[in-house]
From TrEMBL:
Keywords attached to this entry: Aminotransferase, Transferase
Species classification: Bacteria, Bacillati, Actinomycetota, Actinomycetes, Micrococcales
Species assigned in the record: Arthrobacter bambusae
GO terms for MF: transaminase activity
Protein name: Aspartate/methionine/tyrosine aminotransferase
Region entry Disordered, spans: 46-69
Length: 69
């Protein structure tokens, strides 16, 4: 089954070309740096709570803050 999948995707790559890939060691652009800072600040507003059954959910760190609800 795996070999059939690889043959099928190989045929698709012939038609559509290879997937775009870039190196991971390039410098970040200023726009990406600003976006990263903003995303990190947003992530710090939340905390993950784990239930006894092992499932998790996120809640705001400040329960009085209704700005994102």
């Amino acid at each position: 089954m795996t070999q059939r999948f690889m043959r099928a995707t190989g045929k698709l790559r012939i038609i559509f070309g290879p997937a775009h890939s870039s190196s991971l060691d390039h410098e970040m652009t200023e726009e990406n740096k600003r976006l990263l800072v903003r995303r990190q600040a947003e992530a710090q507003q939340w905390e993950t709570v784990r239930r006894p059954d092992g499932s998790t959910y996120v809640v705001p760190k400040n329960p009085d803050d209704k700005s994102l609800r």
